[in-house]
Amino acid sequence: MSKHLTHTADLSKEEILQIFSYAKNFLDFKKRDDLNGKLIINIFFENSTRTRSSFEIAAKRLGADVVNLDVARSSTSKGETLFDTAANLDAMGPDAIIVRHNRAGVPKILSKYVKCSIINAGDGAHQHPTQGLLDLFTLMQKWGSLEGKKIAIIGDIRNSRVANSDIELFTRFGAKVLLVGPPQFLPQTHFPTTNSLKEAIDFADAVISLRTQTERHKNPTFSSLQDYAQNFKVTKKLIGNKDIFVMHPGPVHRNIDLDDEIMDDERCLVLEQVKNGVAVRMAILKHLLGDSK
């Protein structure tokens, strides 16, 4: 039976800690042969530069062969169903298919149609498990443990698959989470919420700012992103001298999500997240595809 990663809940706490143990070793970025002879297919139905290239680099650093499918030119654009596409790809004998799709639940459904591992690289506003894992890893590298830590997630939470994955993982590892944004960006939730960025920064040991998912809004919610930024942009002035980490899954809307000064601040972990993302994705591939060569 192939192992899949379609949701953060697919992994036990013990499995996550094992993945992080691998990831720490992979931070040296040396080329390895753990996945020699393995074939990995990237199939992205939504645009992505960072996640796709991060997976590709991760796979190649472990010695795997990688095929990137150009969906715009694939048979799905000619009317072939998603499931036929998956079945055809599976018939070619890959060890894993990494899939991103704008519809929630697609990776989970595909996992029932294939023999290989399915890895969810983001599905609609549902889940982005590898981003959640790299965010958790980044904070654990800084703190050792999330037990009792306070994390504020800021922005378009209702439409954010990253927020869903982060919330599940952070709370499972003992952190308290505060959701921050304008009322129309906040989901119905049992977690504490606030519309005040200052309150969130006073509360938090770390803040995660999210990109505003304008493409997921049926109706405009702000007259401009600048209007949103007036109340929810994380600035150097706001965080002052506080001992706090600032994160963002990218791509960052500079001076909308985070200001230029924050991006250059040593408390900003955005580039560390990118670096850790390669190591964590290497570790996930090793965990799912086994240690056999």
From TrEMBL:
PANTHER family: ASPARTATE CARBAMOYLTRANSFERASE, ORNITHINE CARBAMOYLTRANSFERASE, MITOCHONDRIAL. The keyword Transferase applies. Residues 3-140 form the Aspartate/ornithine carbamoyltransferase carbamoyl-P binding domain. Keywords: Pyrimidine biosynthesis, Transferase. L-aspartate binds at K78, R161, R211. It comes from the Bacteria. Coiled coil: none annotated. This is Aspartate carbamoyltransferase. It comes from Nautilia profundicola (strain ATCC BAA-1463 / DSM 18972 / AmH). It catalyses: carbamoyl phosphate + L-aspartate = N-carbamoyl-L-aspartate + phosphate + H(+). It is an enzyme of class 2 (transferase).
